[in-house]
Amino acid sequence: MVNLNLRVDVMNNLIRFFNIVHRTVRLATAEMVKGKYFYAVRKGTIPGVYDSWDKCKAQVDKFPAASFKKFASEEEAWAFVGSTASKLGTASTTDSADSNKDYTDSELETIFANTSGVKRLYDDFSEDGEPSAKRRKSPEETGTVCATQATVGKDSFTYMGDAVVVYTDGCCSGNGKTKGARAGIGVYWGPDHPMNVCDRLPGRPTNQRAEIHAASRACEQAKSMNIKKIVIYTDSMFTINGITKWISNWKKNGWKLKSGGEVINKEDFQRLEKGIQDLEVVWMHIPGHAGYKGNEEADRLAKQGAAKPEN
């Protein structure tokens, strides 16, 4: 009789357990049907978990190599983020059509980072001349604080895979003028990063020289920190084409152009070529003045550098 009662109790417990499981699954399914999701931003302006597509989109829109994904549970979302930041509210919202897609990291990289086909206005990408001047704001219109060089840890950088991400830019007020022109370089590693650079460019002041020297400085800094791989975001296709395509022919032809003229930026590209030695560099073109935060910050640093007195 005791054994029979024990079996009945066990069966009752099992029934109650399966009822609880069934109810939990049913409620979870109902929540998913209602469209209650959690949007995890692993790489964006502010990584974290958001309760609506619009909030998530605000963090990843125009952020190169952004990484985000939609989840049915908050725990899974935070696991994806791998963040210790404070959790946000989870009010249910109606999603836009775009949020129904489950993006992979490779798709995100294509959407947000592959901008090499976009040509910046007023930029001449030929190998034998300087471009027209970029429209630059005055130094008074900017407020970037230049940090001093210091030893920093690996966790202070932004990564794309195992490569460190950096943004470079150059500027020149009065580009092409013989008097009054001032050029500056900007290297942006991250918000208030101690390796951010804003320096006046000595020598011949032009946009193209500034762009090349900004990239050179980033490479030199990377090697000084024992960084082996970097992704350089620049809005200068002249710099990218020069160092990846044209330089080999220039060297074969004794630093002559196809037209027979001298390569104006010979010394600049020689410095950049030396800078990338023993360094794995991925060159990424990003459209200038298009709202990309890293590029905008590098641009501000360059303008700050141009405003400095020449050493």
TrEMBL record:
Which segments constitute the RNase H type-1 domain?
A: 160-307
Q: Name any one Pfam family assigned in the record.
A: RNase_H
Keywords recorded for this protein, A-Z: Cytoplasm, Endonuclease, Hydrolase, Magnesium, Metal-binding, Nuclease
InterPro entries attached to this UniProt entry: Ribosomal_bL9/RNase_H1_N (IPR009027), RNase_H (IPR050092), RNase_H1_euk (IPR017067), RNase_H1_N (IPR011320), RNase_H1_N_sf (IPR037056), RNaseH-like_sf (IPR012337), RNaseH_domain (IPR002156), RNaseH_sf (IPR036397)
Region spans: Disordered: 123-143
The reaction(s) annotated as catalysed by this protein in its Swiss-Prot or TrEMBL entry are:
Endonucleolytic cleavage to 5'-phosphomonoester
List the GO cellular component terms: mitochondrion
Gene Ontology molecular function: any one: RNA-DNA hybrid ribonuclease activity
EC number(s)? 3.1.26.4
Co-factor(s)? Mg(2+)
* Signal peptide start-end: none
Q: For this UniProt entry, what is the primary localization, expressed as one broad class? A: cytoplasm
Q: Where in the cell is it found?
A: Cytoplasm
Name the domain of life: Eukaryota
Which is a GO BP term held by this UniProt record? DNA replication, removal of RNA primer
> How would you classify this enzyme at the top EC level?
hydrolase
Q: How does it assemble?
A: Monomer.
Family membership:
Belongs to the RNase H family.
Under which name does UniProt file this protein? Answer: Ribonuclease H1
